[in-house]
Amino acid sequence: MGLFRQNTDMDNWKITAEELVRLRETCLQCIRDGELYELRNDAKLRAVYSTQSYDEFKNIVDAAHLRPVTKSDKANFQTKNRLWNSAARD
Q1: Which single residue of 11, 14, 53, 83 has CA 20 to 30 Å from 90?
Q2: What is the dihedral of CA 27, 30, 36, 41, to 10 degrees?
Q3: What is the predicted pLDDT for the residue at 88?
Q4: Is there a contact between 7 and 13 (Cβ–Cβ < 8 Å)?
């Protein structure tokens, strides 16, 4: 079944609120997927010339969507006490 139900009479075509929500979610997911694809592809193009091993290449591509922690992130009251490097806890 597609995103929309279809009536036989084109004059009575109606889209329900549930269908609009589903359409919106589908569109937003497509946008997010496209943005992630572009980030990963750009990282691949940069990494192919700057890495010495496949593991290094893979790590760069896998981390393409990550952003550095900024000073304002660190100073933010809600995130100030957050453990930024969970691997360091162990």
Answers
A1: 53
A2: -140
A3: 58
A4: yes
